[in-house]
Design brief:
The structure is a single chain. With 297 residues, the protein is mostly helical. It has two domains: 116 residues, no CATH class; 103 residues, no CATH class. It is built from eleven helices and no strands. α6 packs parallel to α8. It starts with a helix and ends with a helix.
Length: 297
C-alpha cells in the first residue's frame, strides 16, 4: 500500500501517431460526408413521377429507330402534331439506365447526380471563402428546401450543369486562366440536348459579363482587363452557337421561350405557380435567398 503511494506516477503517453499514408478525416469533414450521404439516401427514395414513363418510351424509340422523333406519337389528342423533343438525350440516358438496372438504375443515377450537384455547390462556397460551418449550414438548408422537387427528372441535370457553370466561373474569375472558358461551350453542347434549362447557364454568363464590365468602368481593383472582358464576350457567343448543335436546330433553341409567357398548359403546372411562403420548407428557401442577396449588397 505504502509502496504504491510512494511509487512515482508515470508520465502520460501521447496517443500513437497515425500510420504513414493513413488519412484521418477531421470532425468537419465527417459532418460534410454525413450531409452528402444523407442527400444521396434521400434522393434514393422512389418518387412517382408520371413523366418518367414517356421519357423511357421516347428513349426506347430513339434507341430502336436511331432518330429523334419530330411529331407526337405518344398522345391521342395531339398525335401527329409537330413536337420539339428538347430532352431527347436525357430520355436516351434514362432508357440506358433502365436497360442496365431497371427502375433502380434510373433512381441511383439521378441520386448520384443530385449528390454531385450539392458537392459542387459546397465547393463553390468553399472557393469563395465562405466560413466552413456556414457553408455546411447553407448546404443542409438547401437540402431541406429543395428535396421535395428531387426525382428521376431531366430538371436535375440543369441543376447539375448550373453548379458546374458557377464553380467554373468562380475559378476563372480567381485565376484569369482563359483555358477554363472552353468549359462553357463544351458543356452547353450536352446541356442544350438534355434539358431546356440551358438558358439559365447563358444568363449566368451574361450577368457575369455585365457585372464585370461595370467593375471595369468604375475602376475597381479586382476588375477584369479589357482582354478578359473580350474573352468572356467571345465565350458567350460561342456558348450560344453551341446550343444550335442539336437535331432540331433553331427550333429547339427557341423552345424555352414558350415557357416565358403564361399559357393554358403552364397555368396547370405546380412548378409554374407562385410559391406558398406560408409553408415551412418554402420559408427555409426564402431565408436562404434573403441571406444570399444580403451577402452581395
Amino acid at each position: 500500500m505504502v509502496a504504491a503511494v510512494l511509487k512515482p506516477a508515470l508520465p502520460e503517453q501521447a496517443p500513437p501517431p497515425p500510420a504513414a499514408g493513413r488519412v484521418v478525416p477531421s470532425r468537419y469533414q465527417v459532418r460534410l460526408i454525413v450531409v452528402l450521404g444523407a442527400i444521396f439516401l434521400v434522393a434514393l427514395v422512389p418518387k412517382l413521377d408520371t413523366d418518367l414513363w414517356w421519357h423511357l418510351k421516347d428513349g426506347a424509340y430513339i434507341a430502336s429507330h436511331h432518330a429523334v422523333p419530330t411529331s407526337d406519337y405518344l398522345s391521342f389528342t395531339f398525335a401527329g402534331h409537330a413536337w420539339t423533343d428538347h430532352e431527347w438525350l436525357a430520355d436516351l440516358f434514362l432508357y440506358g439506365c433502365y436497360r442496365l438496372a431497371g427502375l433502380w438504375g434510373t433512381i441511383i443515377a439521378f441520386a448520384a447526380i443530385i449528390c454531385a450537384t450539392f458537392g459542387l455547390v459546397y465547393a463553390r462556397m468553399s472557393r469563395a471563402g465562405v466560413n466552413r460551418m456556414l457553408a455546411l449550414f447553407v448546404l443542409s438548408a438547401a437540402f431541406v428546401a429543395s428535396s421535395a422537387t428531387w426525382g428521376v427528372r431531366p430538371q436535375m441535370l440543369t441543376l447539375f450543369f448550373l453548379a458546374v457553370y458557377a464553380l467554373t466561373l468562380e475559378r476563372w474569375l480567381a485565376t484569369r486562366d482563359r483555358r477554363l472558358l472552353a468549359v462553357f461551350p463544351a458543356v452547353m453542347i450536352l446541356w442544350a440536348n438534355l434539358h431546356g434549362g440551358w438558358v439559365l447557364g447563358l444568363a449566368v454568363l451574361v450577368l457575369a459579363l455585365v457585372g464585370e464590365w461595370l467593375n471595369h468602368a468604375n475602376r475597381h481593383d479586382s476588375a477584369l482587363s479589357r482582354g478578359d472582358l473580350r474573352a468572356l464576350g467571345v465565350t458567350i457567343v460561342l456558348t450560344l452557337l453551341a446550343t444550335l448543335l442539336n437535331p432540331a436546330g433553331l427550333r429547339e433553341v427557341l423552345y424555352p421561350l414558350v415557357w416565358i409567357f403564361p399559357s393554358a398548359y403552364s397555368n396547370v403546372l405546380n412548378e409554374w405557380v407562385s410559391s406558398d411562403f406560408h409553408q415551412p420548407v418554402t420559408m427555409v428557401f426564402e431565408g436562404i435567398s434573403t441571406r444570399a442577396c444580403s451577402m452581395h449588397t
